[in-house]
Specification:
The chain is mainly alpha-helical and 121 residues long. It has five helices and two strands, in the order αααββαα.
């Protein structure tokens, strides 16, 4: 995958696997969510304790209404996050253009700090 996922992204992935399959066992969740068994156990305990999933007598995890609410809200959050990130990336691109227009501005500050230090000694 390359990039690290946030805790919320991992929780969303686990809940999505359970939701998409209308229930899932640990092994299925582990493989589809790309998690080690240790991490799976930790995050499953978190979502169980939060009341987002329940485990039936066949060791199959099922989403609760609270888990469905989490998925819905995460979807809203993720869409908003993408819009804001796109705008922020645009602002950063503009900053780079401005910095390229004045390439020596950073060196002057460094030289001034160096000169001040040398004059004090």
């Amino acid at each position: 995958m390359g990039k690290h996922r946030s805790r919320l992204q991992i929780l969303e992935t686990i809940l999505s696997v359970i939701n998409d399959n209308e229930g899932a066992k640990k092994t299925q969740i582990m493989y589809q969510a790309y998690l080690s068994y240790r991490l799976l156990t930790r995050y499953l305990n978190d979502v169980r304790n939060a009341g987002m999933v329940v485990c039936d007598n066949k060791n199959c995890f099922r989403l609760t209404q609270k888990g469905q609410n989490f998925l819905d809200r995460f979807g809203e959050y993720y869409r908003s996050h993408k819009v804001v990130k796109k705008k922020l990336d645009h602002v950063e691109d503009q900053k780079l253009v401005l910095e390229k227009m004045c390439p020596n501005s950073g060196e002057v500050t460094v030289n001034r700090v160096t000169l001040e230090k040398n004059s004090k000694t």
